[in-house]
Amino acid sequence: MLFIYASDEFEGRKTGEPGQKKAVNFIKNQYLKIGVPSPLGDNDYFQEIPASYFERSNIQDSENVLAFIKGVEKPDEVIVISSHLDHIGISSNGAINNGADDDGSGTVAMIEIAEAFKEAKKKGNGPKRSILFLHVTGEEIGLFGSRYYADVDPVFPLKNTVANLNIDMIGRIDPKHENKGGYLYLIGSDKLSKELHDISEAVNKKYFNMEFDYTYNDDNDPNRFYYRSDHYNFAKNNIPVIFYFNGTHDDYHRPSDTPDKINYEFLETRTRLIFHTAWELANREERVKLD
User: Fold this and answer.
1) How far does CA 183 lie from the centroid of its chain?
2) Which residues of 134-147 are buried (b: 16+ CB within 10 A; e: fewer)?
3) Is the pLDDT of residue 56 over 90?
4) Cα–Cα distance measured from residue 99 to residue 78, given in angstroms and rounded to the nearest whole number
5) Contact (CB, 8 A) for 144 and 49
6) pLDDT in tens, 174-201
7) Which of 47, 91, 92, 231 could be stapled to 64 by a disulfide with Cβ–Cβ 3.0 to 4.6 Å?
8) pTM
9) Count of CB atoms within 10 A of residue 68's CB?
10) Is the bond preceding residue 44 a cis peptide, omega within 30 degrees?
């Protein structure tokens, strides 16, 4: 799937451009294929965002893609899983920035997680709470898609949104962790809810025991990654978040971020971890507490 999504055909998925339109239709078709509906009804998976919202004269209309699995016991309480569907497009020299890790990895991970929830529900074991799969546009130009969802048109009331699990780059290995086992950077897990952090740790210990690296979670992190991906638009509204991230690498925002560089074993394990965390949040008796 990632070899298609991060191919030249999608022209780097720049917000509002033809390649990004191909991307949203590709995502929609994946959900139709696995039978996960849209919360918007009538096979309308697109939350339309007008060009004027982007505050830039050269950006066309764009859209978020929304898919939804309704909870069987507490359907009004919603876990939002997010990733961004856009990338940076074509360089001035004509090279296409495919964005396989950023954020093709998060995009395909979400679709796989949705399929797992769908299979569970089909077998009579659906999640107690609802799950919204939110593929946002405009991340690379300023987190616009997630901001639009949170500030303008939250399809589900923010007060009913239990947590946001945001996936942005989970397919690669950064220089710090080369020649080591499985790892993942977690950002934000303890900022608003110590309970969310503890649940996340417990799920990892039970099923995976990978290294969680909290370097970028430091309040004084000079990279300020906590403010630089789509979870922030939920966190600013007092919704507990976890941002999953593999760190940067030499191919970040370059044409060389291609699908052949992805570590698929790591991508699968990280995706399973996020699924198990979402499953725990969706099925525990009480919604995760805000500190």
Assistant:
1) 18
2) bbbbbbbbebbbbb
3) no
4) 29
5) yes
6) 999 998 899 999 999 999 999 999 999 9
7) 47
8) 0.98
9) 22
10) no
d(CA 30, CA 45): 11
Contacts 24+ apart (CB under 8 A), 222-225: 225/187
* Structural domains of the chain sorted by starting position, each given as residue range(s) with its CATH number in brackets: 2-283 (3.40.630.10)
CA distance 205 to 211: 10
User: What sign for the dihedral angle of Cα 104, 75, 35, 156?
Assistant: negative
> Which contiguous run of DSSP H or E holds residue 82?
strand 74-84
- CA end-to-end span of the chain, whole Å? 39
Six-digit token pair at 240? 């507990």
pLDDT (tens digit per residue) in 102-157: 999 999 999 999 999 999 999 999 999 999 999 999 999 999 999 999 999 999 99
Residue type, 84: H
Residue type (1 letter), 145: G
Cβ pair 274, 167 in contact under 8 A: yes
Kindly report the length of the chain: 291
- Could you tell me the two tokens for 178? 């080369």
